[in-house]
Each structure stands twice: as structure tokens, then as C-alpha cells.
Amino acid sequence: METVEVLDKFKNGELSLEDTLHFFEEKKYAEMNFAKLDTDRKERQGFAEVIFCNKKADEHLKEIFKKIYDDNGEVFGTRASKHQYEVIKEVISDIEYDEISGILKKEKNKEKIGNIAVVTAGTADIAVAEEAALTVEYFGGNVTRVYDVGVSGIHRLLDKIDVINKANCVITIAGMEGALASVIGGLVKNPVIAVPTSVGYGASFDGLSALLTMINSCANGISVVNIDNGYGAAYVATQINRLACKENGGNDGE
């Protein structure tokens, strides 16, 4: 239960004073011996805990997914394998898996607000882009996908710049030399979150080249997350989108 629900139940006589005090005094995490789930995170930050699936043992992953789903009615995991999808189906039969992004989720129907543009330089960046896009949608934001508009064919980007400019925030995803973030940063009015990807030939150093380009950008309004970190970009973009919608008094992304 969340704080408002507990207080409503106390007010209506459905919870005793002792039980109400216990709710506020108890540890706000679930002790599972191998894990301590942060059950208070949504109350503190507005987002429930998300599961990073890579390298987790099957039995641990099953228990974590089931606990979060039982508590929240939805659950979201990143960097999941097809094998892990089959494992989680044993405890959540209708869990959804996106093989491109590695997202493993079961979500409630929710109203989507605002607008976040997710833009890629090439089609090889789409796995990271979909991690970002699906995260935004899970957290309740609308997404405009604009893929394969890299600087080697700048006319493709310019053709879509009006659409991108309507977003409250832009997630720009690029490998190789990572120049797309600087170009977009010089063309749009709203914040840009740049995501370097590990796409590229040998001298790209698995994304280090794109990372260095992005953090050295002369364009204003650009923030940079780690290599291939679509989830991290989506989290920050969602915070910006929520603030923009609150300021605008609605869900208009323009």
C-alpha cells in the first residue's frame, strides 16, 4: 500500500492506529536474503524499482519478478535474454518480451502524457532506442520514434526536425562518431539526452568514440548517459516530460 491509501484506510476505520504506525515505522524494503527490494522507491521517486536482468540467477530472477509484480500489479526488467523470458513465464504466464530491446514486462493500462522523441542515427542503434522507448512508455510517456536519420544523410533529419521539435525532450542515440547529438542539439529548443552506442568499427572502441564526441559537444542543452544506456536516458527524459506536462497544466508535448 502507498501512503495515501494507508491514511484513507485509517480515516475510514479500516486500519487501526497500531497498523498505521507500523506501516510508517517498518523498513521500506523487502528482505529476500539474496536481494533487498526497494519497495518504497515509487513513493520516494515516482517510479517503482526496475530489474536489471543480465547475470541474475534464474531462481533469484523468478522471486524478484514475482514479488514486484505481486506488490505493484506490474513489473519491468531490462537486458533480459530469451532464456530468462521462458523462466519468468513460469511465474507470470502473460509476461511480455521484446527480443530487440531485451525488455521483459507486464504493465497496467495507463494514460500516457507528454511527448518524448527517440531518435537514432542508424538502424543498428534501434536495440538501445527501443530500450529507451519502451521504458518511457512503461513510465507513462508518449513516444515519437524517428529512426535512421544519421548525419551521413542530413536531409533525412531535416525532413523530421519539426516533429522532433514538438517533443518535451529528445533522446538522441548514435554510434560511430556520435555526431548526431550535436546536430540535433543545435536545432531543437528542448533538452537533449545523448546516448552513445557500441555500434561502429574498430576505432570506435565499443562506443568510447561516440561518448567522447557527445561529452565534448559545443551544442547547448545536451546531457550524456553511459554507452548503450537507453534505460538511463529514458528515466531522465521521463522526469523532464512530467515536469513539462505539470508546467503546461496538461499533456501537450508542444
| Termini gap | 35 Å
Beta-strand fraction estimate: 15-25%
pLDDT < 50 runs, ≥5 residues: none
Going across the biggest sheet, name each strand in turn.
8-7-9-10-11
The shape, in one word, is: globular
Which structural class best describes the helix and strand composition? Answer: alpha/beta
**Helix percentage range:** 40-55%
Rg of Cα set:
20 Å
Mean pLDDT: 89
Biggest sheet record: 5 strands, parallel
- Compute the number of strand runs: 11
Q: DSSP helix count?
A: 10
Q: Secondary-structure element order, as H and E?
A: HHEEHEHEHEEEHEHEHEHEH
Describe the SSE topology:
Elements: H1 3-11, H2 17-25, E1 30-31, E2 36-37, H3 41-45, E3 51-52, H4 58-72, E4 75-78, H5 82-88, E5 96-98, E6 103-106, E7 113-120, H6 126-138, E8 141-146, H7 154-165, E9 169-174, H8 180-185, E10 192-196, H9 208-215, E11 222-224, H10 230-248
Helix pairs in contact: 1-2, 6-10
What are the defining features of this structure?
alpha/beta, 254 residues, 4-stranded mixed sheet
Structure description:
With 254 residues, the chain is an alpha/beta fold. Helices cover 41% and strands 18% of the residues. It is built from ten helices and eleven strands. The strands form three sheets. Strands 8-7-9-10-11 form a five-stranded parallel β-sheet, sandwiched between helices. A four-stranded mixed β-sheet has the order 3-4-6-5. A hairpin with a 4-residue loop joins strand 1 and strand 2. Helix 6 (126-138) packs across helix 10 (230-248). The longest helix is centred in the last third of the chain and has 19 residues, at 230-248. The radius of gyration is 20 Å and the shape is globular. The two termini are 35 Å apart.
